[in-house]
Every structure is written in structure tokens, then in C-alpha cells.
Amino acid sequence: MKIVFAVILLFVMADSSGAVVDPDPNSIGVYFDQYADVNYMDVAPNVEFSAYVILTNPTWDFVQGVEFSFELEIPAGMEGMIYRLGRILPPTTMFPIGDETTPLGGYCIFGMGVPYPTSAATVLVEWVFLMTEPMTIEFYLGPSPVPTLPDGLPVIENENNELMSLGVSSGDVAFPVAEVNTGHQPVGDKSVAWGGVKSLFR
């Protein structure tokens, strides 16, 4: 019972007291805390760590569906030295589909049996990773392979079956949204407005 309660608590989510790093509305990123204020950290080998896919500053009160792709970029030749030990989805998730057979990338599509309430930092996925050797990691987010909208971006659906493209926290799907052991923060401050960034996508 304590384990179930802990999982539910994870998704009762960060309240607005956390400092969300990305100020833009309707954005998605990878963070190392549930409040969306840590997108860089150093991690030693053989130490488990969590990475959270978080919807930040949503203008919708509920989410009923999510779709995105993800990629982890690591040094060549180290592909067998990183493991994804677990994945946790919101407790109302039904029939998740996607390809996550490798920890280095894939896509995730799932719907909610009950509309999922949002907050300033709404955790959509938690991954647990472990690397056995020192390495750098860059996290990228993008559209699903067969996107429901043509913007080349992650998409969410609300309880009224309306669809919305999301910005990524780095401002561009070509830039990493989170980094491990690189020695520098991922791109954070946008130099152009979100409308301008959208025009860059195919």
C-alpha cells in the first residue's frame, strides 16, 4: 500500500511553489526534479537517477492524451553502458503505445482514462536510468513518428478531444532539453519568440 501511495503522490505533482525554468506557456522538457527547475546535473556511474518529462505552464486545465519522441545522445561506443530501469506514467493512463525498446530513444503515445489535471509543472513520464561508466548525455524531445498535427512538435489532447502542439523547453527540437555531465546548461533562454521558432520547423 505504501508503494502505491508513493506512486500516486509522485503524480499529485508539483505545485506552483516550484520555480519552473521555462517561462513559456504549453512547453515540454526533461528535468531532474518534479518542479521543472533542474535541467542539468552531474551523475556518477552506478547511481540511479530519474528524468521527468514535464509539461510546463499549460493553458489547459486537463490533459487526456500525449505524444512525443525522445532521444538520448551519448558518446559513440557507450551504447551498452546505459540502462533504463523503469518508466512511470500518470495513474490514469490507459493503453500506452510506442517504441521504448532501447534506453536511447523511441516514442511515447498514451491516453488517460480520466482527464488528468495539470499544474505549472505536470509530470507526464518518469524514467529511471543507470550508467555503468562516466559519460555525457543530452536529452532531446520531438514529434511522434506519425504525428497528429503537422508542426513537427510534441502534441497533447484535452478532455474535449482538442489537440495542441507544444513548444520544447530548449526552444528548438534540434537543441537538447536536458544534459548530464556535459559541464554546461542546456539552451534555456530563447532569443526569439515562440511564434518565430515554430516557423523554423518543417
* Structural domain count: 1
Please tally the helical runs, counting DSSP H or I stretches of 4 or more residues. Answer: 2
How does the helix and strand content classify structurally? mainly beta
Indicate the CATH class: Mainly Beta
| Outline type | globular
Main attributes?
202 residues, mainly beta, Immunoglobulin-like, 8-stranded mixed sheet, 5-stranded mixed sheet, globular
Q: How would you sum up this structure, described in words?
A:
This protein is mainly beta and 202 residues long. It has one domain: Immunoglobulin-like (Sandwich). It is built from two helices and 13 strands, in the order αβββββββββββββα. It has helices at residues 2-11, 194-198, and strands at residues 27-31, 40-41, 49-56, 62-73, 82-88, 93-102, 105-117, 121-131, 137-142, 155-157, 163-165, 167-168, 178-180. Strands 2, 4, 6, 7, 9, 10, 11 and 13 form an eight-stranded mixed β-sheet that branches. β10 (155-157) and β11 form a beta hairpin. The longest helix has 10 residues, at 2-11. It is globular and about 45 Å long. The N and C termini lie far apart (47 Å). The model is unreliable at 1-17 and 190-202 (pLDDT under 50).
Topology overview:
Elements: H1 2-11, E1 27-31, E2 40-41, E3 49-56, E4 62-73, E5 82-88, E6 93-102, E7 105-117, E8 121-131, E9 137-142, E10 155-157, E11 163-165, E12 167-168, E13 178-180, H2 194-198
Parallel strand pairs: 1-12, 2-13
Antiparallel strand pairs: 1-3, 3-8, 4-7, 4-9, 4-10, 5-8, 6-7, 9-13, 10-11
In short:
With 202 residues, the chain is mostly beta strands.
